[in-house]
Amino acid sequence: MREILSDLVAEQQFLDQSLQRIPIKNWDRVTPSKPWTVRDTISHLADFADLAADTLLGGDKVKEWQKASDLDVLRQRAIQRGRTMRPQDVIEWWRGGRAKVVEPLSHMTEHDRVEWIEGSMSARTFATFRLMETWAHGLDIYRALEIEVEDTTRIRHICWLGWKTLPYAFKAAGLDYSPVRVEVIGPGYAKWVYGPEDTDDLIKGSASDWARVVVRRIKPKDVRLKVTGETAQKAVEVAQAFL
């Protein structure tokens, strides 16, 4: 757990520090995830941090999300709250929530189970979801603020999660899933491989492309992934490293 939690904190701190350097007026810039603004996006991250913390500490707030027929209604509640707050207060809201997530996770093994919106998952996967949320929404914020950022080796966690969640993505799309292998090259020519060797369905290419595809920040037709096999082709189309 130490590795994923260290990378989670680093990703959150990088976004936090980026926000400290922008004019307050830029907090209301619209991101590519319209109509959300920078403020709205951090409010969402803060709200989900609170929800995650409550779950880890034995609360039952997640049950409301599990029973909800429209999750966007619940997301909008946090957005409205953030719009009544000063930018620095929104950041403090987020900081408080994420600290209450990391502390209990640090006392868990990677195989311990955590209850979440679509059911339980391992503590490692849960922590990776928190990193993915920060990274994906960070991409939106950096684009809105015209901030140039380079990918780090932390992107391997998003690549892994994109592969790990393929069975769920196929089920959500009403498709049958069979094992797919993903081989990607990341910063510093690091190579990361997920999936069995004995499959004809293979996705190869850059970690940056695969990670952005699985968080739906770029369309498959706009990347240079080499895809072999029908299931692998479907995987690129339906992949979603989020619930």
Shape assignment: globular
The main β sheet shows up as: 4 strands, mixed
At the fourth level of CATH, the homologous superfamily of the largest domain is dinb family like domain
SSE series: HHHHHEEHHHEEEHEH
Low-confidence stretches: none
- Helix % is 40-55%
Q: What distance lies between the first and last C-alpha atoms, to the nearest angstrom?
A: 22 Å
Strand order of the largest sheet: 4-3-5-6
Number of domains: 2
Fraction in beta strands: 5-15%
* Average residue pLDDT: 96
Q: Give the CATH class of the largest domain.
A: Mainly Alpha
Number of helices: 10
How many β-strand runs? 6
- Briefly note the CATH topology name of the largest domain: Four Helix Bundle (Hemerythrin (Met), subunit A)
Q: Tell me which CATH architecture of the largest domain applies here.
A: Up-down Bundle
**What's the alpha carbon Rg, rounded to whole Å?**
18 Å
